[in-house]
């Protein structure tokens, strides 16, 4: 398996149902990707539960459609290489100010 899925299970993501999302992904995607839980925050707590598919972060995950969304991301990856495209303009401005 060349794909990885990381499900954030800390803080707000856990409180918003990340464990149920993990179970749904285990049932619907475990044959296509290596699935794991992580307590390393992805930095988008207000948009959780969050997962990373091959480094691209998906927000507002729900057990009902989690497997469908992940399979779609695996089949047609979004152009957010390593999750960079998922940052807001304010986040990018703050980052550029540090350079």
What is the strand and helix layout of this fold?
Layout (H helix, E strand, L loop, with lengths): L2 E6 L2 H5 L2 H12 L3 E6 L12 E3 L2 E3 L7 H10 L13 H9 L2
Structure description:
The chain is of the alpha+beta class and 99 residues long. The protein has one domain (3-97): Glutaredoxin (3-Layer(aba) Sandwich). The protein is 36% helix and 18% strand. It contains four helices and four strands; from the N terminus they run E-H-H-E-E-E-H-H. It has helices at residues 11-15, 18-29, 66-75, 89-97; strands spanning 3-8, 33-38, 51-53, 56-58. A four-stranded mixed beta sheet has the order 2-1-3-4, with helices on one face. Helix 2 packs across helix 3. The longest helix has 12 residues, at 18-29. The model has no long low-confidence stretch (mean pLDDT 86).
Structural class: alpha+beta
Assign the CATH architecture. 3-Layer(aba) Sandwich
- At the first level of CATH, the class is Alpha Beta
Count of domain modules: 1
* CATH homologous superfamily (4th level) name: Glutaredoxin
Alpha carbon gyration radius: 13 Å
Helix fraction, binned, reads: 25-40%
> Which oligomerization state do the chains in this entry correspond to?
single chain
Number of strands: 4
Shape: globular
**Low-confidence parts lasting 5 or more residues at pLDDT below 50?**
none
Average pLDDT number: 86
Helices and strands, in N-to-C order?
EHHEEEHH
